[in-house]
Design a protein that fits this description.
The protein has 27 helices and seven strands. The protein is of the alpha+beta class and about 725 residues long. Among the domains are: about 170 residues, Neurolysin, domain 3; about 60 residues, no CATH class; about 180 residues, Neurolysin, domain 3. InterPro entries: M3A_DCP, MetalloPept_cat_dom_sf, Neurolysin/TOP_dom2, Neurolysin/TOP_N, OpdA_N, Pept_M3A_M3B, Pept_M3A_M3B_dom.
């Protein structure tokens, strides 16, 4: 997607939107459409989520695209000599109506989807792609951009303007703006085909998540915690199955079930349902779609002269090329496999001692890992959860933001800001010292039908000086299991880390201090760094001693339990690293291999065999439901980016750990905000990190962090 064409896109939730489209239809009275109109009310206007209706989506998107295209055409037809002021500035300002329409589109797509909306989405996807091509392949527009860019190479503009023109020129060039007419036409056709395939892929996964629900009887609940049982009962009742218990086909439901259920046959069933999403040889099967996506991507980049999709995609990432990304992953892979071997041996020993007479299978891994955790570290995950109550953790987020960013969070009175679901709460974010308004933070915490699984962050409105310095509207979205009425929301340590992680994205949005909307974009293998770094504050004494309190007694978590948590921090890193890396390596292999030779099922199996993938573990995201890669282009050949960013994270965390004030060192926190959060993409990521750290990051910090041997050659 061209970042200058869509300001304020959701960071993750909207990755499935690949551009803009224009319909030849002329909808009537569309300016009365609530999805297009200016946002009104407090905080310089807020989305009218209370006025959302699926019937308004098509006319809103179509009219918004029509208006945006008219703005672009006016810029392209300007007879004056191209300048930054008469070309780039109006481009940056264009498309405000479309921005608003896409905000609602993103909510419908990710938070409150329905069969009705999915039909709308299916119809709009090719139109969206078609319109994107009309802009990125506008010959007159690109000529103006190229003129400004070439002049700037000899006579550089001021830094923020120079960064903007370089990013815009690079993006247009990557999207085929320099192709001949025949190649442009095919390029646009491919994008149109891909947009439909992405939507279909995503909807197929969502259908399998909704359709595969396991209902349990009371005598099938062995080992499950009371909180899970109560939530499962409520989930069943919501589906008209009163008296039963529902295990839904989402990670938030699957993970604890596999960890605690003593019913091995049911664990196998739940595991197979979850990891077979999109792979059931039915109308929702995604294997053929993956083949088509890979072939079309390959054909498209060959039009531009690249050998493969990964080579094209990574040229403007920190990794620069697929070889560098693979080199990093393969430095870590052997250590991860060695750790898995140790973990499986520990689990098998316990299974044997209990007379289980089994070999550890993938559906056993979490269950026996929990037993090993208890034996090795005397650490009971269910005991830890009693101190991880969602309300307290939310306050922990706010405390961290206050200490590092000087932000204050105040809950907005219910009803004063429209929300799209009753579960959503909104907070006002201000500067602690001046009281100046920074923005709003929306939280949508619970899983439900029509909401995609996982956790993500979005912006409904981003900050930029050019657009009037309006308050940021940021959002975090989780899929915690909603408790029975009156029960607390208790989450796992992993989920607490994810909560901090996604809040890191929100802080990245809220702390932005940039002039031009394009600079709100990001480099994919860098944008996860800030959020991964924020996870580290969950482990700090100030957070632990204030906010990790027992949900019944309000007692602070005992230091003895904290020490067990810290001691076990590298526990199960073989599993965690291997399941992630398997997906990341497969992503890169898919996009550096001739697609004519790929049958997804066979290719996945054979490639993992060549990598000596342990049979006790499966990829975190198997190919048929790997939405990061196949429901959009957001993370295609970019899933490795989490590891790349984690190298930066581990290195930066050591900087805090070594500083005089530790993780709350004021001087280092100021540098963190100044160089790594506020500039967004106004500074080259490598340069920004060097300004913060004084040098490049090294892989040795990552290896120490995971308890792996440090390689002799440790530079990234």
């Amino acid at each position: 997607m061209n970042p200058h064409l869509k300001k304020g896109l959701c960071f993750i939730a909207m990755v499935s939107i690949l551009g803009y489209a224009q319909s030849q239809k002329k909808p009537q009275n569309t300016m009365n459409n609530p999805l297009l109109t200016d946002w009104t009310g407090p905080y310089s206007g807020v989305p009218a989520f209370d006025k959302m209706n699926v019937k308004d989506v098509k006319p809103a998107i179509r009219k918004g695209m029509e208006m945006h295209l008219a703005e672009i055409d006016k810029i392209a037809e300007n007879p004056a000599e191209p300048t930054f002021e008469n070309t780039i500035v109006p481009m940056e300002k264009a498309g405000s109506e479309l921005d608003r329409a896409f905000t609602y589109y993103g909510i419908f797509s990710s938070n409150v989807s329905s069969p009705e909306f999915r039909e709308v989405q299916k119809e709009l996807s090719p139109e969206i792609s078609e319109f994107s091509s009309k802009i990125s392949q506008n010959e007159k527009l690109f000529k103006r951009i190229k003129t400004i860019y070439e002049k700037s190479r000899n006579n550089p503009l001021e830094p923020s303007e120079q960064r903007v023109i370089e990013l815009i020129y690079e993006d247009f060039a990557m999207q085929g703006a320099d192709l001949d007419e025949k190649a442009k036409e095919r390029y646009a056709e491919i994008n149109k085909e891909l947009s439909g395939l992405y939507t279909q892929f995503s909807n197929n996964v969502l259908a399998d998540e909704e359709n595969y629900v396991l209902y349990l009887e009371k005598d099938q609940l062995g080992g499950l915690p009371d909180s899970y049982i109560k939530s499962a009962a409520q989930a069943a009742a919501q589906r008209g199955k009163e008296g039963l218990y529902a295990v839904t086909n989402t990670r938030s439901s699957m993970d604890p079930f596999l960890t605690y259920s003593t019913e091995r046959s049911l664990r196998e069933k739940v595991w197979k349902s979850y990891y077979s999403r999109g792979d059931n040889a039915d109308e929702y099967d995604n294997n053929e779609i993956v083949k088509q996506i890979l072939k079309l991507r390959d054909e498209r980049v060959k039009l531009l002269g690249y050998d493969n999709y990964a080579q094209w995609r990574l040229q403007n990432r920190m990794a620069k090329n697929p070889e560098n990304a693979m080199n990093l992953m393969m430095k870590v892979w052997p250590a991860a496999l060695a750790r898995v071997e140790e973990e499986v041996a520990d689990m098998q020993k316990i299974a044997n001692s209990e007379g289980a007479n089994i070999d550890i299978k993938p559906w056993d891994y979490r269950f026996f890992a929990e037993k090993v955790r208890k034996e090795k570290y005397d650490l009971n995950s269910e005991e830890v959860k009693q101190y991880l109550e969602l309300g307290n953790l939310t306050e922990a987020l706010f405390f961290t933001a206050g200490e590092l960013f000087n932000f204050n969070f105040k809950l907005v009175k219910e009803g004063s800001v429209p929300v799209f679901h009753e579960d959503v709460k909104v907070w006002e974010v201000t500067d602690k010292d001046t009281g100046n308004l920074i923005g709003l933070w929306y939280l949508d915490p619970f899983a439900r039908q029509g909401k995609r699984s996982g956790a993500w962050a979005t912006t409904y409105r981003s900050y930029s000086e050019l657009m009037g310095k309006k308050p940021v509207l940021a959002s975090n979205n989780s899929n915690f299991i909603k408790p029975a009425p009156g029960e607390p929301v208790l989450i796992s340590w992993d989920d607490a880390e994810t909560f901090f992680h996604e809040f890191g994205h929100a802080l990245h949005f809220l702390s932005a201090d940039i002039k031009y909307p394009t600079l709100n974009g990001g480099v994919r293998d860098y944008t996860e760094f800030q959020s991964q770094l924020l996870e580290r504050w969950l482990y700090t004494d100030k957070v632990i001693n204030q906010f990790l309190r027992h949900h019944k007694t309000n007692e602070v978590i005992p230091q003895a339990l904290v020490q067990k948590i810290k001691k076990a921090s590298t526990f199960n890193q073989g599993f965690a690293t291997t399941e992630f890396l398997a997906s990341a390596i497969m992503d890169m292999k898919y996009h550096t291999t001739n697609p004519d030779k790929i049958d997804p099922d066979t290719f996945e199996r054979e490639t993992l065999n060549e990598l000596n993938m342990p049979e006790e573990i499966v990829m975190r995201h198997r190919t048929p439901h790997f939405g990061h890669v196949f429901s959009s282009e957001g993370y295609a050949t970019g899933y490795y980016g989490y590891l790349w960013a984690d190298v930066l994270t581990a290195d930066a965390a050591e900087a805090f750990a070594e500083s005089e004030g530790g993780f709350y060192d004021k001087e280092l926190a100021q540098k963190l905000v100044k160089y790594l959060f506020a500039p967004r993409n106004a500074i080259d990521p490598a340069e920004a990190y060097r300004k913060f750290r004084g040098r490049d990051a090294k892989i040795d910090a990552l290896m120490r962090d995971r308890g792996f041997p440090v390689p002799a050659e440790s530079n990234q």
